[in-house]
Design brief:
Largest sheet: 10 strands, mixed
Helix content: 40-55%
Low-confidence stretches: 1-31
Bound molecules: fe (iii) ion
Number of helices: 15
CATH architecture of the largest domain: 3-Layer(aba) Sandwich
Radius of gyration: 21 Å
Structural class: alpha/beta
Length: 350
């Protein structure tokens, strides 16, 4: 009588605790089947669907531990090789770089599956890879900006837009990575001149997330901003008429000129350094690159698949998918993150 009750409450408590703290994963013997311990900083509907489909197809259970990006890295780092993590998932190459530097990953070519991922979207030694991409682009007022005047990110620093630019704060990794890419492409001096110009164009002190910048443009508080494309698509595809109306007042501009291409970042994953279930973990990582998973990221999270041949049903995403990505390895975003942060500090971009 008491044994099943004990098991039930332990399992329940474990599920609750796993969200915030390390909770010892059930061993293979206990569950009687293979398991993979996935530590993720993502909490998207697409991922839940991918995990469920993976277990159904392979019989491998997923023990999911969720935490926010920086906390997740810190936790696996503190546990070191004793960490039960098999797989670590997070967003932004800047974070993946920090995780790699902290020794969280080991290299794996995933039995050749990693060859499918473009060279610019994975760690040079195969320690992590992007399984979906996001473009950081210019959002502008459809009413007050003539798109024929737009060229690229440099416009945000142009004095003619004084008092018309909204930005989120520099402590967010998305803007850090964008500036890190500029350091990589144009050098530190040019990147600093750009950041300085943007600061002079602020319509208000940096605040809010990406969606808030879109709302601010719609509300007439500013005319230009930087956003990751999926925030815009989420609003544009919303069933809430007010939210959709905000997106309708805003258009995205994807820089594609001789000198400047669109800044692209990744959602990424890697095999944990001390993975106790290495084989199952590699099968899971390969599954993130399967047609079914790639399609789920495109249809449910509005991210671009890394496998270009993948077909998906999301006309809003397909409509903006034709752009040129900047030709640098996303690992460079992490390498230049320190330089980018120092620039933000020097130019007074809080
Ligand atoms: Fe995001």
């Amino acid at each position: 009588m008491s044994l099943p009750r004990l098991l039930t409450s332990t399992t329940l408590a474990c599920g609750l605790i796993a969200i915030l703290t390390a909770c010892a994963p059930r061993s293979d013997q206990e569950v009687g089947e293979a398991v993979v311990n996935v530590y993720s900083a993502r909490h998207y509907s697409s991922d839940a669907q991918v995990y469920a489909a993976f277990t159904e197809e392979t019989g491998i259970q997923i023990n999911l531990v969720e935490a926010n990006g920086d906390l997740l890295i810190e936790r696996v780092k503190q546990d070191g090789l004793r960490s039960p993590a098999d797989v670590v998932i997070t967003v932004d190459a800047g974070r993946l770089y920090r995780a790699e530097q902290a020794g969280l990953f080991q290299a794996s070519d995933l039995n050749g599956a990693l060859d499918q991922v473009p060279a610019t979207l994975k760690h040079p030694e195969g320690k992590w890879f992007g399984f979906a991409t996001r473009a950081r682009v210019i959002a502008y007022s459809a009413e007050r900006i003539d798109p024929s005047e737009l060229h690229g990110y440099e416009d945000l620093a142009d004095p003619k837009y004084r008092g018309r630019v909204c930005m989120r704060s520099s402590d967010n990794v998305y803007n850090q990575s964008l500036l890190a890419a500029m350091v990589e492409k144009q050098g530190e001096e040019a990147a600093e001149a750009w950041a300085n110009g943007v600061v002079h164009n602020f319509a208000r002190p940096p605040q809010g997330g990406d969606s808030d910048q879109i709302s601010a443009i719609a509300a007439g508080q500013c005319d230009l901003a930087l956003v990751n494309h999926y925030y815009y698509l989420r609003m544009a595809r919303s069933n809430d008429g007010d939210v959709k109306a905000q997106a309708d007042a805003v258009t995205l501009f994807f820089p594609t000129s001789e000198t400047e291409h669109t800044h692209v970042n990744v959602s990424g994953a890697g095999l944990a350094a001390g993975a106790p279930h290495r084989e199952a973990a590699e099968i899971f990582l390969q599954y993130l690159l399967s047609d079914k998973s790639q399609r789920a990221f495109a249809e449910l999270t509005n991210e671009f698949p890394v496998i270009e041949t993948v077909q998906y049903d999301n006309p809003s995403l397909a409509q903006i998918a034709d752009f040129e990505s900047e030709p640098i390895n996303v690992n460079a975003l992490g390498e230049n993150a320190g330089t980018a942060q120092r620039i933000f500090d020097r130019v007074g971009w809080p």
